[in-house]
Amino acid sequence: MGAALWRACGPVAIPLLLLSVAVLTVTLDRAAFWWRWWRNELAAVMRNPSRLDGLRRQMAWGEPVLQAAVLLAPLLGLVGTVNGLMGVLRSLGSQLLLPPQAPLAGYGEVLVSTLIGLQITVVATTVLLINRGVRRWQCQRLRQELRR
Question: pLDDT at position 41, please?
Answer without folding.
Answer: 76
